[in-house]
Amino acid sequence: MIPKRAKDGGRTTGLLYYLYGPGRRDEHMDPHMVAAWSPGVLDPGRDAGTSIPRLAALLDAPVFALEGTPQEKHVYHVPVRLDRNDRRLSDAEWAEVAAEIMDATGVAPKGDPQAARWVAVRHADDHIHIVATLARQDGLKVHLEFDKRKMQERARELEVRYGLRRLTSGDKTASKWPTTAEAEKAKRKGRDEPPRITLQSKVREAAAVSGSDEEFFAAIQRAGLRLNKRTAPDGAVTGYSVALPGDRTGAGRAVWFSGSRLAPDLSLPRVRERWTGVPAGAGVVGAGQFASQAAAWQAAAGHIHQAAAILGQSGNEAGAGEMVALSDFLTTYAAQAPAEVRQELRNAARAFERAGRAPASRQMHSEASRHLRTATQLLVMSASLGVNGGETAAALTILVAAALAVIAAQRFHQAAQHRAQEQAAAGAGYHLRAATEVAYGARAGSSRKRGSRATWQRTELRPDGPALVEAYAPVVREAIPEVAERVLGEAAWPALAATLKQAENAGYEPAQVLAEVTAQRGFGDAESAAEVLVWRLQRRMASDTPDTSNGRPQQDADRAASTRPEGATEAGGARKPTEDQKDAAEDGSESPAAPITPPPVLNRSEAIEATPLGGDDAPTFGDAVRQAVPAYAADVLADPASATLAAYLIKASGEGHAPAELLAEMAAARDLADADSVAQVLTWRLQGRLSGSGKPTPLPRATGRRANQPSGQSRNPGERTAADHAAQEAAQRRGQSRGPRR
């Protein structure tokens, strides 16, 4: 729940006409009053005996009764909005919310008959508007003190009362959001995003790969940004600002942003923490050590695995520094990764930004930070190396390692009670899972080989890699003796050892949790049992961690329960509960739940199942699903994400693919048993399979023709319905997800 005080106004009548009107795009539905300062106030939306001007006159009456000069800006306006995945509140509940917000701000305290007058108007399911006039009925002015902070504190209480998504009050670590004016200007100029967002990304990429002031400023200029250094009288650089070429004010002046205006951790002192106190040349990796880009990426994955095993284990200050190093790695990898997964990785890096800003002092040079910095340098250095065809496999190895590190980061923030950062890490994990599935889809398409997986190369794990391998070999022999020697002899075994170390740090019994994930399903024709176990452990830890960004908590719990071995506990039999978890269980508190980028949702009806996937001889969506994935057909057809999957299959059919065969190929790319949403996973894989230009394949639109369709043919009705509706729903959700600024 987000209450936000809008700018004070001077026209009560004008605001009420807008709230009761159709809206700027006819988006207002059934405008009506849900509460007012007095039970007898008539609603102009439903009562014929009153009107909007009459209601405005009643609200303004105390203002004109004030002694002295009338107050010019006397209209107090507070929209209160729910998260898009919160349940729908009734009018009676909204009335209670409005009264609580007015009480918290001091505009209308409970039990005060002489308080200011106010009304609450509802014209949508997910929000209300509270309109008050800043004059008490006893002739005194309303005195506001810290009203914004107080309404946020009361909102946190209301979230618990009504079972809504629980947000976190500000900890001063959030990036500055683009203003409405910036967003509108970007739209007029045809930009994909406001300049502030572009500058944040470019400056963060420059900081991630730099080891000195000179390198940092040079990287900014190489990125094509305008740079202005701020210097002291003695010549020392004390700050900087950047501008996007072509971004100017109406008067023709460049629009400059200082680092601190972009994000709290992009000020020059905070950026300098990355290299302050580090000896020159420390950790520098030479290009001569590696024969190809894929080899450098495999080495980087090894360092990420080692960092994930010890992330957050050196104290809060060192952990805060490790979050910065992980954020830098994700930012750098997003710029270097294969084109098929680049956008998802950019989304993951942006989602993780706040997780990299822990509200605590930072110590930047722990062992885990060193591994992460080395991995970042390997990525930068690898850009100058040749390619040998193994980059996709190496990219998958990095994705798995990065996902494990993000899970460790989420647990660190959870233990430190950094709720906003925990949510950010969970969002990044969602995008990394999507990127992994997209990469497997692309890999399956390029190799045409059933079950194709990344090739795990042996990486020298220094300094604790050999110790991990030796320490966990007995654990493997004890937990899974029937396949132990096979696992210990595979290339992915060092990664599995690092994952077991991370699981033990998270509170699991290594042998028991390894036995449980092994018992979930056989290895079938898997090329690497160790790799499969790494993946299952990763999914196990992710599912056991309260996911603050997942909008389907109960559904996920049900799916997880269906794949648990007999006798395991609800939270996982190998999990040792912490004191914080016991306390949470006693007071009944729950983690917040809201998806970061949910799939477009169509009406789940038989119409989706009956949608034809092409011409007259093409199968329907339901038939293709039953033929390709019979074991998961019921789940796929009941999943909201099935609409988007159908749209991608329609596009694939238009490009000459056989829908059922292509879907079966995507299902065979990797085991689906641990997937939270099989339909979503298959959609991601299809996205990777169909992407040829490096960008996610767009869904078919209502305008224009399919890429490979002859101009003389028209699309069949089934295709138009599924594809166009999916695209339209996605656009609507993107517009709704912005919400008020936080």
From TrEMBL:
Q: Which Pfam family is one of those matched by this entry?
A: Relaxase
* UniProt-annotated stretches for the region Disordered: 171-195, 542-602, 685-742
Superkingdom: Bacteria
Question: Which stretches does UniProt call biased (Basic and acidic residues)?
Answer: 182-195, 576-585, 717-727
InterPro entries associated with the record: Endonuclease_MobA/VirD2
Q: Where is the composition biased (Polar residues)?
A: 706-716
All residue ranges annotated as the MobA/VirD2-like nuclease domain in the record: 71-164
Please identify the protein, giving its name as recorded. Answer: Relaxase/mobilization nuclease domain-containing protein
Q: Which organism is it from?
A: Streptomyces sindenensis
